Amino acid sequence: MSNSVNQPWQNIEDDVLLEDSIGELSELIVYNDDYNTFDWVIESFIDVCKHTPEQAEQLSLLVHFKGKAIVKTSTFEVLHPMKDALCDRGLSAVIEGIKV
pLDDT tens across 9-56, in order? Predict the structure, then answer.
């Protein structure tokens, strides 16, 4: 993340949903980029994922320093609209199934 103006960012990967994974837990993962500001990422996590400001700030730091972070765990059906909303805001987000 940088302190520059928010710019569009394309999705890194497409979602893959297998019929037998419907209803199973998945992870919403956000990747770091050089376009979005911390403030924008924090605001997005609060608005889209319904995180508290403290959670959103901590997650933005994880994304920045680790390169990516799991920002939400739920079913694919719950995460898919969140992923789309984050991508619409210019963040790079994907959904991955939890490996058991």
Answer: 444 344 454 445 556 899 999 999 999 999 999 999 999 999 999 999
- The CATH number that domain 24-97 falls under is 3.30.1390.10
Q: Where are the domains of the chain?
A: 24-97
Determine the distance from the C-alpha atom of residue 61 to the mean position of all C-alpha atoms in its chain, rounded to a whole number.
13
CB neighbours (10 Å) of residue 92? 20
Output phi, psi for 58, to 5 deg. -60, -45
DSSP at 13: S
Pair 63, 38: CB distance under 8 Å:
no
- The pTM for the full model equals 0.77
